[in-house]
Amino acid sequence: MPFGNTHNQAKLKYSSEQEYPDLSKHNNYMAKILTAAMYERLRTKETPSGFTLDDVIQTGVDNPGHPFIMTVGCVAGDEETYEVFKELLDPVIEDRHGGYKPTDKHKTDLNPDNLKGGDDLDPKYVLSSRVRTGRSIRGFCLPPHCSRGERRAVEKLSVEALAALSGDLKGKYYALKNMTEAEQQQLIDDHFLFDKPVSPLLLASGMARDWPDARGIWHNDNKTFLVWVNEEDHLRVISMQKGGKMKEVFTRFCTGLTKIETLFRDRGHAFMWNEHLGYVLTCPSNLGTGLRAGVHVKLPNMSKQAKFDEILSKLRLQKRGTGGVDTAAVGGVFDISNADRLGFSEVELVQMVVDGVKLLVEMEKRLEKGQSIDNLMPAQK
Amino acid sequence: MKEGKMASSFTRILSSKRNVGILSLVGGSVAAGFLLHREHVTAGEPLRRRYPASAEYPDLRKHNNCMASSLTPAIYAKLCDKATPNGYTLDQAIQTGVDNPGHPFIKTVGLVAGDEESYEVFAELLDPVIKERHNGYDPRTMKHPTDLNASKIQSGVFDERYVLSSRVRTGRSIRGLSLPPACTRAERREVERVVVDALSGLKEDLTGKYYSLTLMTEQEQQQLIDDHFLFDKPVSPLLTCAGMARDWPDGRGIWHNNEKTFLIWINEEDHTRVISMEKGGNMKRVFERFCRGLKEVERLIQERGWEFMWNERLGYILTCPSNLGTGLRAGVHVKLPRLSKDPRFSKILDNLRLQKRGTGGVDTAAVGGVFDISNLDRLGQSEVQLVQTVIDGVNYLIECEKRLEKGQDIKVPAPIKQFK
């Protein structure tokens, strides 16, 4: 429960066995790892702000999952969650992030000069390029746990920092609860507007409380740099443009993020980050870089190939429909992005996308001409 | 002794109506007293950013519900740091009303109770909400009458050419255990255990069986659907935002007697919902079984050291303030094709203190001129009074329908006085 800590004390009157959730029909990472014995050890703990084990796992208890898709099943309520409940979260992270160990260190690299190529993806195939990540402001509880006062403080700090951006990053903030009908329609047309979450995965964790209080969208005048405030994370930062110039998108992404981080620091605030987990976000699946770099790319022939999924897997890429996660591809156009988040730096992940998409487009061109793609098959990255 | 350890420890805390009376006298300082106790129990003070009440006060400018009408910044400031002994807070109580601004035409309640003490600790907000929702009933000065003596009912057997079915429902909460918005998994399972155990003691026409939502077979599920007994995970955001659907379907289930005339829902929106129903118009028998069944269940849980949440000012305590008092909805499915087209229909219902719904229940439309007609009121009148009101009212409606059939005119009855 978001705020009642006495509640956790009251719960301790019951034995661990009486409180342990029924996970017999569940298929998510939390359910895989949370044994009754572990529940007993962790149930007496709470983070300094009062986030408890049951708060962490509620979304995973309420959403048993899908036989094919393995969801995470737990969230963080604050930065300390990852420390206090590491006995549960370390194995969840290891499982979700391809074997990332509790002793591993995560490299952060936001220097776009380290990216090779990426400025020449064929715009006849690559319709748009986009890079997104999230950032959390240290010292404030995360969306599942924050109070209205905290959420509003995050909004205020963010809006003030963003207001100081200049040049091609100069922009404007639209609070969800104050926007006019005209502004709302424009944001929808630009594909910028985010809505109240409907996914039970998010709702069950308490992220949608008090909607739309203190939620909003900021974007630059050029409409190439966009920040969501208080949706699933404190901040989601997005750089995007039509066409295939991923290097440009990534450069603006890095420049913008670095500037924002400086502006926050000038005001006495840091982002949540540590050597082991990189950038700390609400969902364990977004740790590390929190980065998803992707393109909308036309691959009608490739997508019919039997080995399409295998190729993507070797390239460490994933496909989605053009509506984003859990949507279907339309007209042979796919959203192709990096599968990893943690254990690789930002540059490394974008490099994988750039190299991988270049290869996929080449394969598509071959298939169009009726040629074989056998000698283009990639090795496992 | 067969009773569990939990039963004895909880009943020791709040075993008698006398103790509850003491708690309500002490009022606000109870929270302070228990907060001190809590400090003694917890190792350290939880650290989090503290904002003044004015920074936490919800934005209710676009809201239309009873909570938003009554929750001034001053009341919020006074109550926002309080918690019930179980740790339930004001923010939790009002979350559903903050998240669901409401409808311009339909005024929802906008808050829930997490436990029995919520009605005491947050009385400053709950009392005006109760007053607004229950047409002026003032919990500070008035007493609620409880009367489950079905023999007092007059007439009560309807003309079955018009009345297709009769039904009475209410809810009951087990004292000492938190309510659905706040209960832990263990508490919810305890409610299930206590109630199922008691129900297994019912005999004769009340003998029945329990179907746990987690364990029922496909066949049992289909049968319950065909009987119109099965309830599903709540989808209404009014309920989900209050936290009532957590851990679904753990601890939830349906019990019914073999004759399928007495049915109990466990851990849906309340600890228990108790329903008596039959095809046809014998409301008197439906109510008689209702009262007999309720009293038997109460006796059986008392044998095991438990009791229902009840007090003099609020009657039976349930999750939603709209269901306080009797928690009773007595209704019929009745054919009123002509009357329902008469422009005076709504006024007639109003004056008779009745409400209409479609035959799918709340928020559904009527089909084929068949309406669900039931009492409007819950608090301030007894069960017998409310059921009598429904009986008298439905008889009047049938009379109107018959007159319209013969081409005769009908009269709008004088409004019934409330709070007899």
From TrEMBL, chain A:
Region (Disordered), start-end ranges: 96-117
Domain Phosphagen kinase N-terminal: 11-98
Biological process (GO), any one: phosphocreatine biosynthetic process
Protein name: creatine kinase
UniProt EC number: 2.7.3.2
Catalytic activity reported: creatine + ATP = N-phosphocreatine + ADP + H(+)
Broad class of enzyme this protein falls into: transferase
Family the entry assigns: Belongs to the ATP:guanido phosphotransferase family.
GO (cellular component) term, any one: extracellular space
Gene (name only): CKB
Annotated source species: Xiphophorus maculatus
Residues involved in ATP binding: 128-132, 191, 236, 292-296, 320-325
CDD domains: creatine_kinase_like
SUPFAM superfamilies in the record: Glutamine synthetase/guanido kinase (SSF55931), Guanido kinase N-terminal domain (SSF48034)
Residue ranges annotated for the Phosphagen kinase C-terminal domain, each copy included: 125-367
One example GO MF annotation: ATP binding
Keyword entries, A-Z: ATP-binding, Kinase, Nucleotide-binding, Transferase
TrEMBL record, chain B:
CDD domains attached to this UniProt entry: creatine_kinase_like
UniProt KW Transmembrane keyword: no
InterPro entries: ATP-guanido_PTrfase, ATP-guanido_PTrfase_AS, ATP-guanido_PTrfase_cat, ATP-guanido_PTrfase_N, ATP-guanido_PTrfase_N_sf, Gln_synth/guanido_kin_cat_dom
GO molecular function, one term: ATP binding
One Gene Ontology cellular component: mitochondrial inner membrane
Broad EC category: transferase
Every Phosphagen kinase C-terminal domain range: 162-404
Binding sites annotated in the UniProt record for ATP: 165-169, 228, 273, 329-333, 357-362
Record domain Phosphagen kinase N-terminal: where: 48-135
This protein's record includes keyword Nucleotide-binding: yes
EC number of this enzyme: 2.7.3.2
Keyword set, alphabetical order: ATP-binding, Kinase, Membrane, Mitochondrion, Mitochondrion inner membrane, Nucleotide-binding, Transferase, Transit peptide
Membrane topology: Peripheral membrane protein
GO biological process, one term: phosphocreatine biosynthetic process
Domain of life: Eukaryota
Subcellular location(s) of the protein: Mitochondrion inner membrane
Function: Reversibly catalyzes the transfer of phosphate between ATP and various phosphogens (e.g. creatine phosphate). Creatine kinase isoenzymes play a central role in energy transduction in tissues with large, fluctuating energy demands, such as skeletal muscle, heart, brain and spermatozoa.
Subunit structure: Exists as an octamer composed of four MTCK homodimers.
Family: Belongs to the ATP:guanido phosphotransferase family.
The protein, known as: Creatine kinase U-type, mitochondrial
Lineage of the organism: Eukaryota, Metazoa, Chordata, Craniata, Vertebrata
